[in-house]
Task: structure prediction
Amino acid sequence: MATGTGTAVSGPLAGVRVVELAGIGPGPFAAMLLGDLGADVVRVERPGGPGLAIDPAHDITNRNKRSVLVDLKSEDGARTVLDLAARADVLIEGYRPGVAERLGVGPDAALARNPALVYGRMTGWGQDGPLAASAGHDIGYIAVTGALGLTGPADGPPYAAANLLGDYAGGSLYLVIGILAALQHVHAGGPGQVVDAAIVDGTAHLTAMLHGMLAAGRWQDRRGANLLDGGVPFYSTYETADGGYMAVGALEPRFYAEFTRLLGLGESAPVREDPARWGELRTAIAERFRQRTRAEWTEVFEGSDGCVAPVLSLREAPEHPHLAARATFTGHGGITQPAPAPRFSATPGSVRRPPARPGADTAEVARDWDVPGLGSALEPALEPGLERHAPDAGAAEKGSQNR
Result:
């Protein structure tokens, strides 16, 4: 694996070089995760290319990366990307199927330059199938896999939890798993290969346990009717006196006993073993929770085996005592953000660099990766802070996320 990153690094992937062809969503998050683990990630941006509609300085998914500007439609663009791929261990792209090939940076061209390369492809629908060329977003991908249908109340519509389930859990994490497995294959003496990571595949894979329960008759194929989807009163959320919420997960009998004791439910409460009385039980639990504030109930259940936790907002989460003690969140560059995960005893990951600004590291990467032609494919950068707000001339070519 390549070495020489131009900056002191730590993490189990130190020495691994990654080329990320810029996009939005699961591809950048996957590359961020590899960077958090110590890889030297170079994000190849097109002038005026894709990005979140925020100041690049706040785009945390581009932390632990360096950025270069390359116009893939210029005479030297494809050659420059292939020069980077020849020196890399991994390449990540999130275009629609066939776009990388048309740009001259597809897997055949890249693997011809570097037979040991792991070429990671991140899409919503995958590289083949009837919908492969269609646009889409997280909510559509999780809809067809059955995952979206698991969410929401029985008498209401399903809802998406931002883009965490599809883009990141079913997409980014499966791409990273595939990349790491393929790197191990190369390390064992095998050739490089293409990793086809489709959000629909990964999200469907996440439902494996539920399909087993469905086949065994232990899961009803409708939401709000099962053990883990809010269908039971002892695995649900309840409003408190101040409009906050508490999450209850007292599944096991001994934990349920502790929950009811601390809640003060009393001996007259409907027994949980009788599903016919779950409506009454839910009402009784709800009435108790409405008698105190979220903070008061948090104090009651703190440190107990009642399996109850406050439902916190994004801004509140870093202040939770347990997360603060574990440094689950960290501060870097004035931004509070999740710390790298998971944790390693010998090779800890870290936040080493702030979010990369488009093109800011072109000269440094050209030197460190010995790609002198990088500058010839460089277009003049836009004014700082404007790069990701500019219209993307290649939007129609973007990955099936169509962001």
Notes: The two ends are 33 Å apart (CA to CA). The CA atoms of residues 214 and 221 lie 7 Å apart. The mean pLDDT is 91. The longest helix spans residues 164-187.
